[in-house]
Amino acid sequence: MPVSAPNSAPAPTASSRATYAWLAALITAVPIIIFAANGTIITLGLCALAAPAWPGCRDALRQLIGTPPSLALCTLAVWIALSISWSAAPADSAITALRLLLLWLVGLAALAGARAYRLPRGAAGALLIAYSAILALYALEIASGGALISLIKQIDPDRFTQFPDAAQREAYRQLLAFNAIGRGGVLLVLLFWPVAALLIDRHPASGKTGLVLALLLGATIFVLLQLPVGAAPLALLAGLAAFGLAFAAPRRLPQLIAMAAAALLLLMPLIAYKIDRPEAFGVEKRSIPPSWQHRIEIWHYTANRITEKPLTGWGFDGARHIDAKATQFVAELPDGSDIAYPNVTLLPLHPHNGALQ
Fold first, then answer.
1. Please, which of 21, 50, 94, 280 could form a disulfide with 110 given CB 3.0 to 4.6 Å?
2. pTM reported for the whole predicted model
3. Co-location of 238 and 136 in the same domain
4. Measuring CA to CA, which residue among 60, 58, 47 is closest to residue 116?
5. Within a domain: residue 3?
6. pLDDT for the residue numbered 29
7. Is the pLDDT at 303 greater than 70, yes or no?
């Protein structure tokens, strides 16, 4: 019977391998967090989530890659690789494609690990406490007029000398402060759902669970309505509608969403091409805000570029290089005059234009 050497180290367990993976992710995170671009943080976060799952998630990862959505993404990846060859900036497009590939892989690994991972006891309570703390911090900021974020961002009303009145300077300070924290309201929308799901899963038959969720939902809606960014409450309402539909048709809804997304991608260029002048719909262009006019100009300009290469397109990530800042947005004002916006082009990269880009 073989006897191990006295000084031989024990074989690493799955738990120790996961710990080493976490430590490696954390060590790698330090310089990236300081020096990397914002978009890298998303990939880094997914890597951190996926790190403990890497040692034992190969089977789950293989199953996920074999699903129809993943196969569709694989097909898209092949087309992306081919289209890089006729992109306006092949090197930049290749780097972007590599980032997306890494994001997809670590996202799949994180999802595979999450499916095989059991949350510890007390996770629902911990998440509820964290969410309540975020709500309380938002309420404090709303009550104080954004005092904390103004201190952090050094937003001093005395610097706004373009406003002679002190009340105007204070109003502008609050506008900047709430704009700074307003985008974070989307995090409340995203975090509400795991909180609700965990509470329902851990306490399904408790009347207190329904009361707590109702109070959380009411507090969340109240906080979001105080913020100047309208996307967050709209996202919450859309999420509630999607939740209701998914609850009623858990299998059919993903198919409908995929069909709607495909229809949007195919029809948006045709729609945008027809709305260069909103007068076709009985709306005077000069009567709508410049931001709306800009959207219309973006959509029409992009639709025109699509018609130039309707089959092959401009190559992966081509929207970043077509315009090359050679265009400029000009708004038509109600008094009959026009105003040019410096450095505002007709193809800025923005989620509003995603279906066209």
1. 50
2. 0.56
3. yes
4. 60
5. no
6. 57
7. yes
Q: What is the structure's pLDDT at 5?
A: 45
Residues 59 and 112 both lie in one domain: yes
Last residue of a domain, one of 91, 116, 141: 116
Q: What is the mean pLDDT of residues 201-226?
A: 81
Tell me the percentage of the chain whose pLDDT exceeds 70.
Answer: 72
308: pLDDT strictly greater than 70: yes
Domain limit, last residue, from 217, 248, 279 = 248
7 inside domain: no
Higher pLDDT, 21 or 355: 355
Place of tokens 């087309």: 79
332 forms beta bridges with: 338
- The mean predicted confidence, pLDDT, of the chain is 75
Task: Give the total number of structural domains in the chain.
Answer: 3
- Hey, what are 225's tokens? 């309505």
Decide if 8 is inside a domain.
no
- pLDDT-based confidence at 82, cuts 50/70/90? very high
Domain extent, residue 35, equals: 14-116
> Does 271 share its domain with 221?
no
Whether residues 146 and 243 share a domain: the answer is yes
